[in-house]
Write a structure and sequence with these properties.
The chain is 0% helix and 51% strand. The chain is mostly beta strands. Strand 15 and strand 16 form a beta hairpin. The radius of gyration is 19 Å and the shape is globular.
Amino acid sequence: MVRPYLILLFMGVVALPVNLGQGLRVNAADTVQVTPNPEPTTGFTNPRLLYSLNAHSGRVKSLTFSPDSRTIFSGGAYNDGIIRLWNSTTGKRVGTINKAQKNAVESLVISPDGQTLASSGSDNIINLWNLKNNQFTRSFVGHTASVMSLAVSSDGKVLVSGALDGIRVWDLLQQRPLSTLVRFDNRIDTLAMSSDGQTLASGDTKGVIKLWNLSTGKLIREFTAHSGTVTDIVFTPDGQNLISCSSDRTIKVWNIPSEQLSRTLTGHNNWVNAIAINRDGKTLASAGRDGIKLWDLSTGELLNTLIGHSDWVSAIAFSPDGKTLASGGFDGIVSIWGNPPVTVRK
């Protein structure tokens, strides 16, 4: 039995077991344009562009990795609505979900066991996909506006969705609605969940970050973090810090126990669209108009700037094993960054 994460009752939210005829089409023979770079590196401060993939007809809106780091999932924006699957080692396309959303695929998350993919879009709907049998399973319907962000608990029990009309919580195991956390509370652009599944962070268009206790459904605290939209937020693996980025061109590191701003990272020349933290908790990647920047979180030092897109970088994700970085751009390209395998000569 799933423990109650919230004390609030849900209203007007339904889960539809509808078969939309949308399945995961797997075709291992699909090929993509790849640009391997054989130059070896050490560490992740100086990765190389391994592959450049023609992924979508427009902006790449969302990226996520499978828990085993072997597969990258990319979602297209605008009228694309397609999810593509890529082998992170070879750069080959290994699957496609056509018409995953009616318009843009705004967010993608995968359950920790790797069996369920959740996608959300500008069509106000959340769709669930069974990756074990490659089939569509269910839609969550209840939001009345674009669902911009999804977050899943580390135990795989709870899915949280953020949209223009607030935040909703779903039972991912029983595939049913649990509750509505808040309604019409600015536009929620981004969500993040702590590794222990107890704290939810939300960021909105007014630059405000709110922290929620998922066991009680109560607001812990809120603060104005940025002078522009909070475009992305992530918890550090140890749960001690929350990192946010914004249209105000800054990245900020917030210490949760002390409730203080501990560091501000500046260097992007325009909006910071997305951030991702490596599993080591030390390296942060950020994406914007001027490429991808890598930061040392312990010092705030800018380590490197990676250029692999001809337009804004709109999405970014580290693999769970920390060895690979994926980026997506307005150019429709998904780039894979990392250290090429070293060939040992006998």
